[in-house]
Amino acid sequence: MGTALGRVLGDAARAGVLPPAEHRRTSLVTPAAAEALGGEHPDLDDAVRARALLTWSSVYGLISFELFGHFAGVVTDLDAFFTEQVGELADLLGL
Description:
The protein is an all-alpha fold. The chain has four helices and no strands.
C-alpha cells in the first residue's frame, strides 16, 4: 500500500493538485521512504510525506478495527463511517 500511496502522491504533485507546503520540514523520513512516497518534486517535502505515513497507518488502523470487530456497538453505519474517514484522510493529504 505504501508504494501505491507514493504513486498517488507523486502523480498528484506532478499534476499540480497538491496544495503548496506551508512550511518545509526535513529529515522526518529516510531517503528510501521519500523515494517510495512520491520521489522528488518541489511539492513533496517531508511534511507531506509525514502526512502520507499518518494516512497509511490510519488506513491500516481502520481496517484492523473493522476486521477485529472494534467498531461493533460504536459505529451505527460502518460503510458510511469508513467512507467518511477515508475522505478525511484524503483531505489531510490534500487530494
